[in-house]
Amino acid sequence: MAPAALLLLLLLAPGLGAASSACDRHPAQLWCRSPDIAAAACKAPSRCAHLSRPGDAPVELGLFYESLCPACRRFLVQQLFTTWLLLPAEALSITLVPYGNAQERNESGKWEFQCQHGPEECLGNMIETCLMHEAKNFSTYFPVIFCLESGSSVTKNLEACLQVYAPQLDGARIAACVQGDTGAALMHRNAQRTEALDPPHQYVPWVVVNGKHTDELQAQAEASLLGLICRLYQVGSRWEWGPVPAPVPPGLYRS
């Protein structure tokens, strides 16, 4: 991961880069000798990713969101991206569906969309959808989406974000997808996936964990997504995780 992203992560989540007092009681070279020591020392699976047992299924998280929704942007930048950075790759599988409270209609055989935050949000949704389509690999496109969502403009910073995080991607191909039939077809698929949610989504961001959405799961994800994923992805009963942090203010991650 680019140093700039890691620096921003530390700025967004003060203290994540500092060793805890418990860590200080164990020599660093011993932290990853066993899950017992790692849990007691630092309670951070990313420090000891090699301890994960083969075959443990990743936690599957679906984020249904809108590109210009302020609450969605906060959750993606402050919770989801930081959690993804800290956890080993095998612990978490993420699916992003940019659509949210949009509406679609078929006009003369072509799909047209109306978005909660106007045409620019529809464009942002389309850019991120086409980016995912062209990049294929999550670890390639997610840092670019993070860059877009954390920057000044979701719709105007694509080339700059590609240059920093994914220079191998062709911005012209993404633009062609956005302007052509492929982008509309992909957005229609996002609409179908959003409309198929059970229970139906009531706000965004809407978090689905291992195929389920409940008020409790949503609240835990909003309070500490990292803590939630760590509790669900348990590498044996010896891993212990601390209590859920105090809930975030109501509505901070909802729109």
TrEMBL record:
<dbReference type="GO" id="GO:0016671">
    <property type="term" value="F:oxidoreductase activity, acting on a sulfur group of donors, disulfide as acceptor"/>
</dbReference>
<dbReference type="InterPro" id="IPR004911">
    <property type="entry name" value="Interferon-induced_GILT"/>
</dbReference>
<keyword id="KW-0391">Immunity</keyword>
<dbReference type="GO" id="GO:0005576">
    <property type="term" value="C:extracellular region"/>
</dbReference>
<dbReference type="Pfam" id="PF03227">
    <property type="entry name" value="GILT"/>
</dbReference>
<dbReference type="GO" id="GO:0005764">
    <property type="term" value="C:lysosome"/>
</dbReference>
<comment type="function">
    <text>Lysosomal thiol reductase that can reduce protein disulfide bonds. May facilitate the complete unfolding of proteins destined for lysosomal degradation. Plays an important role in antigen processing. Facilitates the generation of MHC class II-restricted epitodes from disulfide bond-containing antigen by the endocytic reduction of disulfide bonds. Also facilitates MHC class I-restricted recognition of exogenous antigens containing disulfide bonds by CD8+ T-cells or crosspresentation.</text>
</comment>
<dbReference type="GO" id="GO:0002376">
    <property type="term" value="P:immune system process"/>
</dbReference>
<comment type="similarity">
    <text>Belongs to the GILT family.</text>
</comment>
<comment type="subunit">
    <text>Dimer; disulfide-linked.</text>
</comment>
<comment type="function">
    <text>Lysosomal thiol reductase that can reduce protein disulfide bonds. Facilitates the complete unfolding of proteins destined for lysosomal degradation. Plays an important role in antigen processing.</text>
</comment>
<feature type="signal peptide">
    <location>
        <begin position="1"/>
        <end position="18"/>
    </location>
</feature>
<protein>
    <recommendedName>
        <fullName>Gamma-interferon-inducible lysosomal thiol reductase</fullName>
        <ecNumber>1.8.-.-</ecNumber>
    </recommendedName>
</protein>
<keyword id="KW-0458">Lysosome</keyword>
<keyword id="KW-0964">Secreted</keyword>
<keyword id="KW-0732">Signal</keyword>
<keyword id="KW-0676">Redox-active center</keyword>
<keyword id="KW-1015">Disulfide bond</keyword>
<keyword id="KW-0325">Glycoprotein</keyword>
<keyword id="KW-0560">Oxidoreductase</keyword>
